Amino acid sequence: MSFRCSPINGRWIRRSGRVAVLLGAVLWHRAGAAPVLKVCVDSANPTRTMDSRVVRNALGTQGYGVQFVRFTGYGKGGNGFPVGRFAKMAASECALIMGFPVDASDPHLPPGVAATNAYASTGFVLVRRGDSRDESIGRLPKGSEVGIAEVDTYAGLLYSEHPNIVMHVYVADANMLKALEAGRIAAGLAWQPATEQFLHSHPTARPVQERIVQGRHMRWNLVALYVSQNAQAARTFDAGLSALRSSGHLTTLVKPYAIAPAPRPGKVSALVPPKAAAVAPTADPPATTAAPVTTAAPVKSAAPLKSAPPAVYTAAQAAAGALAYYQNCAMCHGPLLNGQEGGYAGPALKGADFADPSYDFHISDIFNFVAKLMPAASPGSLPEDLDVKIMAFLLKQNGYPAGSKPLTYAEASKSSVPMLYYGK
Q1: What pLDDT, in 10s, does the model give residues 125-149?
Q2: What would the CATH number be for the domain defined by 18-120+220-277?
Q3: Beta bridge partners of 385
Q4: Are 50 and 120 in contact (CB under 8 A)?
Q5: For labelling alongside 172, which of 150, 267, 351, 406 has CA 20 to 30 A away?
Q6: Which of 55, 82, 81, 58 is nearest to 68 (CA)?
Q7: How many other β-carbons are positioned within 10 Å of the β-carbon of residue 315?
Q8: Distances (CA, A) of 57 to 245, 251, 261, 292
Q9: Which CATH number is 122-212 given?
Q10: CA angle at residue 292 from 289 to 297, to 5 degrees?
């Protein structure tokens, strides 16, 4: 998905003279020409071409041009884009950040930003060869081998829900899709934009059929992010979307994706934080006019409040879990749990980017993935007590203290304790 893994490099504008500088950062005029808004687009995002097409046309209906600001949405080792940087980028680099995916079933945004109306809908898809019978994942024959890229965490949860399928893990969606084309697997689970990017870059590949998987965390809507100082730019974009939707042109612009559901008139989006909601529109403004874009002082992103971490495991469990981790997990995630940043194939399993509050992960989310979907070569093959000990080790590495009561499999699999990083 882009944004799921990645930082950008760059220095942010200093506070001195910030109003004038920030105004120039997001809006500039050419003599005798229409005003131009600066818009950030992730060069690593598979939806970048569609995102650019949509914002250019939406702002065009309102009399605005676009200057694109490109950034690369993955960082050192491809290991994650710190979510706190979105607010900084939106305050100093551009008025809108395109292409951010929001979980339709559990919407969350990075701290300090709000979202425009959604313009496209995508998600995780079941991919099959074009000549296969169109079937849902639950109707695949028992024992069907279904591939997945190791980064697609949410899609991986489907394997525990559908005992009729067998997991085959690949390092990337492209590898999985090549295996599908060669007939080595019956189907694949993939992030739809990654599939579309593969097909675009392999025009001679055999046709495939895609079906959006039903269920929690499977469908995602694409939005533009902004900070409150650029709320007028967001309103202008939303007005353009409304015009494109009314004309039917939006359907063409977002292909091969679906258009997102239309916003409900009279309701402020749940994705608009309270401060931004005061200046955000309650419905699409008229599509025929657009007020001049103005800016205000930068918005500060308050750090998420974290209470003291609970003690949910014992020191003995964590010590035993360290050995189990090194024997079963370190070859993919690294001895230091730093994953791709350390040159390993798997993602990091500790740190602020792994357990960022905006992900809304709980101990049960991480544990069920560890217990049911790992190790990648033989998912769910470790004894339950080892799964628990490995989880205890992961908790220790992320700053949770040891206590006197042992963690149990049943407790870990249902725990609603937030998974956060309490280290330094």
Answers
A1: 999 999 888 788 999 999 999 998 8
A2: 3.40.190.10
A3: none
A4: yes
A5: 351
A6: 55
A7: 14
A8: 11, 12, 19, 18
A9: 3.40.190.10
A10: 140
Q: Are 39 and 69 in contact (CB under 8 A)?
A: yes
Distance CA 193, CA 304 (A): 31
Q: Using CA atoms, how far apart are residues 227 and 236, in angstroms rounded to an integer?
A: 14
Residue (of 239, 232, 343) closest to 283 by Cα position: 239
| Residue 129: strand, helix, or coil | strand
Domains 18-120+220-277 and 315-414 equal at CATH topology level: no
What is the pLDDT at residue 32? 53
The CA distance from 370 to 375, in Å, is 8
Helix (H, G, I), strand (E, B) or coil at 250: helix
Q: What DSSP designation does 341 have? A: G
Contact 354, 348 (CB under 8 A): yes
The tokens of 241 are what? 């979307």
Q: pLDDT below 70 — which residues of the chain?
A: 1-33, 74-81, 150-153, 264-306, 377
Residues 271 and 220: their CA atoms lie apart, in Å, by: 14
- 110 and 241 Cβ atoms separated by less than 8 Å: no
pLDDT in tens, 259-271: 998 886 644 343 4
Q: What angle do CA 175, 178, 182 make, to 5 degrees?
A: 140
Q: What is the rounded distance in angstroms from the CA atom of residue 172 to the CA atom of residue 117?
A: 31
According to the model, what pLDDT value does residue 152 have? Answer: 60
CATH number of 315-414: 1.10.760.10
Token code pair at residue 254: 């977002």
Residue 96 is encoded by which pair of tokens? 């809108």
User: How far out from the chain centre does Cα 254 lie?
Assistant: 19
Residue ranges covered by each domain of the chain:
18-120+220-277, 122-212, 315-414
